Amino acid sequence: MPKVRIVFDRVRLEEKMLEEKAIELGHDTKMIDAKTTNINTESKRSDFDFGDVVLERCVSYFRGLHFTACLEFLDVPVFNTTQVATNCGNKLLTSLLLKKHNVSTPKTYFSFSSESAVETLDKQGYPLVIKPIVGSWGRGVILLKDRDTADAIIEVREISDGPLDRIYYLQEAIKRPPRDIRAIAVGDQVIAAMYRTSSGGGFKTNIALGGEPVPCEITKELEDICIKASRAVGGGILGIDVMEDEKRGFVVHEVNNTVEFKGLAKVAKRNIPKEMIEFAVNSALR
Q1: Does an H or E element contain 61, and which?
Q2: How many domains does the chain fold into?
Q3: Residues 168 and 189 in one domain
Q4: Is there a single domain that holds both residue 163 and residue 182?
Q5: pTM, 2 dp
Q6: CATH of residue 132
Q7: d(CA 141, CA 159)
Q8: Exposed e or buried b for every residue in 30-58, given b needs 16+ CB within 10 A?
């Protein structure tokens, strides 16, 4: 049987579910801690026990991205690839790719200084949503309703002045129901979808912030836009975040590389970890 390896930096419920399902399917399965693994330019694949395929599941985006690059250097099949991780992990790149591949997506503005960001906000009007170009769980995603709020957020960014703070990603606020859709695409299939409703009436719907999972029917329209979005960023095992615009219908606002699925697993009809493992194994052994 194929050897499946799961790379992690923190074991969440998702990694436990993947490990249990891989063992249940009969695969030689091992968990590998990225934090204790050393790779160098003289390393060979035979120096490690990376098996036949690796599922990269690091919580840290940058750790996972660079570990994936090392795995590819060693010619180890890994999901997702470095290019896909790069495309999904940077929201600016994701937005550009979605638009370039004609995937309906919110209008998004990019500014490269605080002065330019203020110009955009004043010209386009409020509200706009500001997001860090790298980040998850809704952290740093703020609805800018007026100039005072914008000035406060910009001031914080100028004080911290990290390299990513200098890139301003401003997105139109979609007129939608108080929910969004998280779908999981595995290859060219959408295997599960759920509505995430906002907790306490806020505009954020992340499960990590208390958003409630509700089953969502996978219609042909939803499947089509999710597969199109997946292909736009390079494909693989992905979480697609979709909003329901009052006029345009479905719009994709994010694509997730190491997608969390514990909330969706509660309401999904198909077995999510099973689908992920079988896809990875079959793809690696082709």
Answers
A1: helix 61-73
A2: 2
A3: no
A4: no
A5: 0.92
A6: 3.30.1490.20
A7: 18
A8: eebebeeeebeeeeeeeebebbbbbbbbb
Name the DSSP class of 267: T
The reply to whether 260 and 187 lie within a common domain is yes
Residues 209 and 251 in one domain: yes
Q: Which of 146, 16, 7 is nearest to 65 (CA)?
A: 7
Task: Please report, to the nearest 10 degrees, the dihedral formed by the alpha carbons of residues 264, 79, 164, 40 taken in order.
Answer: 140
Structural domain boundaries, residue 132? 108-172
Distance CA 277, CA 244 (A): 30
- Residue 183 in any domain: the answer is yes
- Going by C-alpha positions, the residue among 260, 187, 197, 249 that lies closest to residue 222 is 249
Q: How far apart are CA 33 and CA 21, in angstroms?
A: 19
Give a yes or no: residue 77 inside a domain: no
pLDDT (tens, 9 = 90+) of the chain, 286 residues, equals: 899 999 999 999 999 999 999 999 999 999 999 999 999 999 999 999 999 999 999 999 999 999 999 999 999 999 999 999 999 999 999 999 999 999 999 999 999 999 999 999 999 999 999 999 998 888 889 999 999 999 999 999 999 888 889 999 999 999 998 889 999 999 999 999 999 887 655 555 555 555 678 999 999 999 999 999 999 999 999 999 999 999 999 999 999 999 999 999 999 999 999 999 999 999 998 8
Q: Is residue 240 part of a domain?
A: yes
- Residue ending a domain, choose from 172, 200, 225: 172
Residue 283 within any structural domain of the chain: no
Q: 13: which 2 tokens?
A: 């419920």
